Amino acid sequence: MRAVVQRVTRSQVLVDGEVTGEINRGLMVLLGVEEGDSDADADYMAEKITGLRIFEDAEGKMNLSLFDVGGEMLVVSQFTLLGDCRKGKRPSFTCAAKPEEADRLYRRFVEACRNKGIHTEEGVFRAEMLVRIENHGPVTLILDSRKLF
Questions:
Q1: Residue 121 is part of a domain; what is its CATH number?
Q2: Using one digit for the tens of pLDDT, what is the confidence trace for 121-131?
Q3: For residue 126, is it within any domain?
Q4: Fewest Cβ atoms closer than 10 Å to its Cβ: which of 32, 45, 69, 147?
Q5: Is residue 131 in a domain?
Q6: Is residue 12 annotated as part of the catalytic site, yes or no?
Q7: Per the residue annotation, which of 12, 79, 109, 120 is the catalytic one?
Q8: Which residue range(s) make up the domain with 125?
Q9: What span, in angstroms and rounded, lies between the C-alpha atoms of 55 and 51?
């Protein structure tokens, strides 16, 4: 499972002009599910991302988590994070999980975050979305449950 995590002042997702998810201060998470990912990957990512200490404390050090700042989370499924661009110019998505399994693990991740007490909004799985992100910092991190990088 792969995620791009951005610290935001606000973020919003629209589908067909309608807002499906919107948050203020918190984290925007673009989440890609890879073939072979499991419940353990979703649980690991939920634990890791909700606990990331990337919000500034009183001294300006990134030392606080979503819990500490009362932050929110917006999660959008994004299979293109699994795009392999090493050969040619057209990405290959053969590593991405099949839609049914990707949706199941995406939902497990979202529920795990909600069960931790984080207000979590989401996009619409497999829909074409317009994502608005006000990246604060900017702070952007890439995480992989298999710890490939």
A1: 3.50.80.10
A2: 999 999 999 99
A3: yes
A4: 147
A5: yes
A6: no
A7: 79
A8: 2-142
A9: 11
Question: What pLDDT digit, counting tens, does each position of 17-55 carry?
Answer: 999 999 999 999 999 999 999 999 999 999 999 999 999
| Closest to 100 in 3D by CA, of 129, 125, 75, 127 | 125
Catalytic annotation present for 6: no
The CA-CA-CA angle for residues 77, 52, 84, to 5°, reads 40
Q: What is the number of domains present in the chain?
A: 1
Q: Is the pTM of this model over 0.85?
A: yes
Q: What's the Cα-to-Cα distance from 66 to each of 33, 59, 88, 109, 134, rounded to whole Å?
A: 23, 17, 40, 16, 17
Please, which residues bridge with residue 135 across strands?
Answer: 8
- Would you say residue 148 has pLDDT above 90? no
Spot the catalytic one: 78, 93, 94, 140.
Answer: 78
Q: Does residue 147 fall inside a structural domain?
A: no
Tell me if 53 sits within 8 A of 62, measured CB to CB: yes
